[in-house]
Specification:
Mean pLDDT: 97
Helix content: 25-40%
Shape: globular
Oligomer: single chain
Largest sheet: 9 strands, mixed
Bound molecules: alpha-D-glucopyranose
Strand order of the largest sheet: 3-4-5-2-1-6-7-11-12
Length: 478
């Protein structure tokens, strides 16, 4: 099958969040399946173009029409020996050579431009994919464009739209079509939602298939509590809307070779391996070096919906227990201040690192005993998977992808992967941590067996890639 993946970010070129990880790993996994040919199309951000890291070739240029304007598009392709996975970049310095990636007043225009340019590139180069797979609001206009302006080029091609984060829908005023897109006035109703232009709504109604990144989140999104206004739109798609839980790149996140670790290990020698990393972590962060204390960790943006409120609420009580708390991440100032003051008061016990440092993050995943993820909602979540891959037992709020990936530990059967709590409540969170600490301190052998069991699971993209293939086939058949 020929698959084209269009997205606003993708590692290793550039990533700001989980979307970037998916756009690295999913195309790779799809291209490894027989008979697939995968193209990835990304903006040629200045940060990629001038990084000096990537060898690309210029394929030519053309102009795309945005309402009354014509904008330059340069086409570049990554030089690679992988014949089944090609990466194309859309160049336009005015739109993409900026210090940041998102957050500009003209973001709507930038990504509408990108979506048109990506389709034009495919048409111009004769790529003729069977399926075009687009992601989040930035590329949410693609399915509508395929059915209108580009209908002549993509008559046989199906579109799949994946929601990674429904909070950002791509909203603009009602003149957006007239000012920027330049589609026929008959598209106005498709683009309109709540008296705004809403890119994501347009994708939900026009894509051949819509999905999100876990089964539970697909259910949740049909309720107003989670859907930021789009519940009715999503449920109206019936079986054409589904959930596929993400994987992780098992090579990138690999305790046998990830950068930043003090010792490499696998499930067979986890006990010694994790202990060496724990000591290194405690030393590096200035915590009391203590083999026996439970180290609880979080690697997270310090944002409200990640559940940082719950953590702050229980922090004092938590630190009365025999634990060490390690946090890495940056975010909202009120959390940064609160957590820093915590470290000030409990210097031997709490280490708050207001930074983003992937190698330190790996050491934390390897050296910690338990991983805390109390997110208010979580489409999929990748860090609980990374934690388990490193033998760090997750304690999570049972929502979205956390519910699908962290089966609760059952003491009587000795099954499950971690500890969960059901309602978004700080005391319930503390209750789940206490259950974890109970096992850690009172039945340490069983704790270690649980961690080893977590390490042995398959979190790879193999199964999700097969499920995306089934979704693409379903779109093509129907
Ligand atoms: C978004 C979601 C996260 C998900 C990721 C990749 O960042 O918030 O839960 O894992 O996308 O799909």
């Amino acid at each position: 099958m020929k698959i084209a993946i269009i997205a606003s970010e993708g590692a290793p070129f550039l990533k700001t969040g989980g979307l970037g990880d998916v756009i690295q790993a999913l195309p790779q996994a799809l291209s490894e399946l027989p008979k697939n040919e995968v193209s990835v199309i990304l903006p040629y951000y200045g940060k990629i173009k001038y990084s000096g890291k990537w060898d690309t070739e210029f394929l030519g240029s053309f102009k795309v029409q945005l309402a009354w304007r014509r904008e330059y598009v340069g086409m570049f392709r990554l030089k690679t020996r992988r014949k089944k996975l090609q990466v194309y970049f859309i160049d336009n310095e005015r739109y993409f050579n900026r210090p940041g990636i998102y957050g500009y007043d003209d973001d709507g225009e930038r990504f509408a431009f990108f979506s048109k340019a990506a389709l034009s590139l495919m048409a111009g180069l004769g790529l003729q994919p069977d399926v075009v797979h687009c992601h989040d609001w930035q590329t949410a206009l693609v399915p509508l464009l395929m059915k209108t302006e580009f209908a002549g080029d993509f008559g046989q091609t199906k579109s799949v739209f994946t929601i990674h984060n429904i909070e950002y829908q791509g909203k603009a005023n009602l003149h957006f079509n007239y000012d920027v897109l330049g589609l026929d006035g008959s598209c106005d109703e498709i683009l309109r939602f709540d008296d705004c232009t809403n890119f994501m709504k347009a994708a939900i109604v026009t894509a051949d298939r819509v999905n999100t990144v876990s089964e539970t989140y697909a259910q949740e999104l049909q309720y107003p509590y989670y859907a930021h206004g789009l519940a009715g739109m999503l449920s109206s798609r019936g079986p054409a809307f589904s959930g596929i839980t993400n994987g992780i790149d098992m090579e990138l996140f690999n305790p046998e070779k990830s950068a930043g670790l003090a010792a490499f290990y696998n499930a067979g020698n986890m006990r010694e391996g994790k202990l060496a990393n724990k000591r290194a972590l405690q030393q590096r962060l200035g915590l009391a070096v203590d083999d026996d204390v439970a180290v609880l960790a979080m690697v997270s943006r310090l944002a409200g919906h990640k559940g940082i409120d719950l953590l702050c609420y229980i922090a004092e009580r938590l630190l009365q227990r025999r634990v060490q708390l390690v946090i890495i991440g940056t975010g909202e100032q009120k959390y940064e201040w609160f957590l820093s003051s915590l470290q000030h008061r409990y210097p031997q016990q709490a280490s708050i690192n207001l930074c983003f440092d992937p190698e330190l993050a790996n050491l934390v995943y390897a050296g910690a005993d338990a991983y805390l993820m109390p997110s208010m909602s979580e489409p999929c979540g990748l860090s609980q998977l990374i934690a388990m891959r490193f033998g760090t037992v997750p304690v999570v709020h049972a929502v979205g992808g956390l519910n699908d990936t962290v089966e609760p530990y059952d003491e009587t059967q000795n099954t499950g992967r971690g500890f969960t709590f059901q309602s978004y409540n700080a005391d319930d969170f503390l209750g789940a941590i206490d259950r974890a600490l109970g096992l850690y301190y009172d039945a340490h052998e069983r704790w270690l067996a649980l961690a080893e069991h977590d390490m042995r699971q398959d979190y790879s993209w193999k199964i999700p890639a097969q499920r995306y293939m089934a979704l693409y086939k379903d779109a093509l058949e129907g």
